[in-house]
Amino acid sequence: MARISDKIKSIDGSREMLKLAVRVTDLWFVGTPNKSEQTKMVIVDSEGDQIHAVCKADQLKSWKADLKENSTYVMHNFKVVKNDSQFRVCEHEYKLVFIRVTVVREVDLHELPFKEFRFVEIGNVVARNFVAGLLVLFRHVSSKNTRVVFRMKDLSS
After folding, report:
1. pTM attached to this predicted model
2. Which fold has domain 8-106?
């Protein structure tokens, strides 16, 4: 009988022999191609919980062609480390690092949720009352030097 998948919310740093059924909701590459490049991703499980995962340069060659945004996977065996960077991309206390024995297998898991946006109240934006250390980035690449202005409106009252 196949082992039941672990849940992201149960990751507490006490073990690294995890089996996760996840969807990659965000995937980006950091560094110089063919030098010190690594990939970072946000993965989500069936309960909508998210965690940051990192595939460093020494493991990236094995997985770069196989990892795709919005695809679903069963992943095993990670190094679990504290998510204590100055800027975090997920609220989870830990993050996962691919190691030599990490296994990634693409599996068709339609029930896994896609990216979920978690909006904050407009009062928290105006008061700059955010979760400490949580960084959310949206990237726009343009060949022109453009300026973007956002107008926000509170529709709650």
Report:
1. 0.69
2. OB fold (Dihydrolipoamide Acetyltransferase, E2P) (2.40.50)
